[in-house]
């Protein structure tokens, strides 16, 4: 009788595990976590990455519809799996390719990407902070991205501003893969390192994606790189670099932005210099404002998209940490979360860290806000604003249009929450730097004490006093909500 009970228990346990398991583990040799990323020229190159449970060859078969080609790459063991990377080169500009990855006998499902044709029409979808731990929450992000791609079928590039997962475990990346695999196989991705992407494991982010790291000042906790798409130059920053930004990366950014002939300049990064969220009170956010913003001003960057604070906030055009008088500055967009973890406003950050006069639009989705900032107050509660957010950037000649949308949790309907247009005369930008923009390990090491000293100086002279003024509010918020 006891034995029968035991067997029944085991059978029931197995059935329960199977019922709870949202997906089957990949079979031996079967590719999983496939991504197609920016890697050098958007017209002629793509970086492919995938994982397997056991070590195999790394082969890609790809076709532009006429010619079928094969490319091979490398594999290495990584955190209990094997990661494969193949770089596709000499692609035809403006061509649509299909591809499959595998070991030569076992293949993935078919993926697809389209190379940049070099014209002046560009369409990006930008999302941030899915930061999920469960399949259910990754599926919120997948639904938001599917809505975005349905609305913008000509999307050239998906930009993910970081915090792909919450704890960066193998299980979470597998959940991410389960929910987003079809999207990742059918788009080109520009990934940005968030502070949750590779928590405590050096090189995790760099091993997850096949990126051109030749411009990176280091790859321990993220990657910085740049690329052109049409007439748009994009720089991706690593805001995990010495808490937020090293001197070496600032120098790289300045040289990189000054070396492009593109008329439009964009920066994508994870942390935000302008925010009303809970992370806006820490020294790294203030340091981004004090150290990074002057470089963005100097380089005439048009728009900065960032995440980390899980709310939507767009500034007016800013220059010199003030509203630009002629509108000819940089617009900062805190892109909202495409996932389901959302932050409330920290009212006490207003004026201390973030002048309200800088804000053009703000949509917060937690604790009864769900509101628009309409220029005077934050109290116009609207349940329809509660949901995951995606952003579209369309560039056509001398016009850039940003449209941001919420996918309602309640109705699954898509609602536009913000529209902004920037215009400029194109053909005006002349590069001013054509030297070597590399950073040696020695140079990075030599710069590290200077970077840390600057951060400490800002923290003591700029941040500490403001922070102490906030302590009563922090205690109040903690007693009310259990969090800072
Ligand atoms: Fe973050």
Protein described:
This protein has 484 residues and is α+β, with helices and mostly antiparallel strands. The protein folds into 2 domains: 32-113, Immunoglobulin-like; 120-423, Metallo-dependent phosphatases (Purple Acid Phosphatase, chain A, domain 2, 4-Layer Sandwich). The protein contains 7 helices and 23 strands. Strand 1 and strand 2 (46-52) form a beta hairpin. Helix 2 (135-151) runs parallel beside helix 3. It is globular and about 65 Å long. Residues 12-20 have low confidence and may be disordered. The structure holds fe (ii) ion.
Features:
single chain; six-stranded mixed sheet; globular; nine-stranded mixed sheet; binds fe (ii) ion; 484 residues; alpha+beta; Purple Acid Phosphatase, chain A, domain 2; 7 helices
How many domains?
A: 2
Give me the count of strands.
Answer: 23
The description of the largest β-sheet is: 9 strands, mixed
Classify the helix fraction into a percent range. 25-40%
Q: For the largest beta sheet, what order do the strands appear in spatially?
A: 12-13-14-15-17-16-18-19-20
What is the CATH top level name of the largest domain? Alpha Beta
Produce a short descriptive summary.
By secondary structure, the chain is an alpha+beta fold. The chain has 7 helices and 23 strands. It has a 9-stranded mixed β-sheet, covered by helices on one side.
């Amino acid at each position: 009788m006891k034995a029968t009970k035991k067997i029944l228990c085991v059978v029931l346990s197995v059935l329960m595990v199977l019922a709870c398991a949202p997906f089957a583990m990949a079979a031996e040799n079967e590719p999983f976590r496939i991504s197609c990323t920016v890697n050098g020229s958007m017209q002629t190159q793509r970086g492919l990455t995938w994982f397997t449970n056991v070590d195999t060859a790394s082969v890609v078969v790809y076709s532009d519809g006429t010619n079928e080609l094969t490319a091979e790459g490398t594999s290495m063991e990584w955190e209990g799996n094997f990661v494969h990377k193949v770089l596709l080169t000499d692609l035809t500009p403006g061509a649509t390719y299909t591809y499959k990855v595998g070991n030569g006998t076992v293949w993935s499902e078919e993926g697809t990407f389209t190379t940049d044709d070099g014209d002046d029409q560009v369409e990006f979808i930008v999302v941030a902070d899915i930061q999920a731990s469960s399949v259910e929450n990754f599926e919120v992000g997948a639904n938001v991205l599917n809505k975005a791609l349905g609305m913008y079928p000509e999307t050239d590039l998906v930009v993910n501003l970081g915090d792909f997962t919450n704890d960066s475990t193998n299980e979470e990346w597998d959940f991410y893969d389960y929910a987003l695999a079809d999207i990742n196989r059918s788009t080109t991705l520009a990934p940005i390192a968030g502070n949750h992407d590779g928590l405590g494991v050096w090189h995790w982010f760099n091993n997850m994606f096949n990126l051109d790291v030749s411009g990176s000042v280091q790859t321990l906790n993220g990657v910085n790189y740049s690329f052109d798409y049409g007439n748009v130059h994009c720089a991706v920053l690593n805001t995990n670099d010495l808490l937020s930004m090293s001197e070496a990366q600032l120098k790289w950014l300045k040289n990189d932005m000054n070396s492009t002939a593109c008329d439009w300049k964009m920066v994508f990064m994870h942390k935000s210099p302008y925010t009303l969220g809970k992370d806006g009170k820490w020294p790294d956010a203030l340091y981004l404002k004090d150290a990074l913003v002057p470089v963005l001003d100097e380089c005439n960057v048009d728009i900065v998209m960032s995440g980390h604070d899980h709310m939507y906030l767009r500034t007016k055009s800013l220059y010199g940490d003030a509203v630009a008088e002629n509108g000819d500055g940089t617009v900062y967009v805190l892109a909202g979360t495409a996932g389901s973890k959302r932050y409330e406003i920290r009212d006490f950050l207003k004026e201390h860290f973030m002048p309200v006069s800088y804000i053009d639009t703000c949509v917060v989705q937690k604790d009864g806000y769900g509101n628009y900032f309409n220029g005077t107050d934050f109290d116009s509660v609207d349940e329809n604003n509660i949901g995951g957010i995606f952003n579209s950037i369309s560039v056509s000649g001398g016009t850039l249009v940003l449209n941001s949308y919420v996918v309602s949790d309640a109705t699954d309907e898509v609602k536009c929450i913000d529209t902004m247009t920037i215009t400029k005369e194109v053909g005006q930008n002349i590069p001013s730097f054509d030297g070597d923009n590399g950073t040696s390990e020695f140079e990075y090491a030599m710069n590290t004490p200077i970077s840390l000293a600057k951060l400490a100086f800002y923290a003591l002279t700029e941040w500490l006093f403001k922070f102490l003024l906030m302590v009563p509010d922090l205690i109040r918020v903690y007693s009310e909500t259990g969090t800072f």
